[in-house]
Amino acid sequence: FFCITHKQAYGRVADIIICLSERVFKSDVFDLPLNRKQLAELTGLTPETVIRLLKQFSDEGLIKVNGKSIEVVDFNLLKKISQKG
Description:
Layout: H1 2-5, H2 9-24, E1 29-31, H3 36-43, H4 47-59, E2 63-66, E3 69-72, H5 75-84
Antiparallel strand pairs: 1-3, 2-3
Helix pairs in contact: 2-5, 3-4
């Protein structure tokens, strides 16, 4: 939680995606167990911001989103975003 509260929105969403992929599901493809509102609450952002950032990540080729399914496409760049916050 410390990391999430001290990062910009872009880094917060990257952190959550990495955490779910690496620690929870241990897979690059997973079904998001949270709805957008819950994800927003977890990151301390508004649902609109989370939706916008997920779309931005998708447009940039970092992830693929299909409904509740997320596939991490560019793990290295996602980790760089997470580190820079």
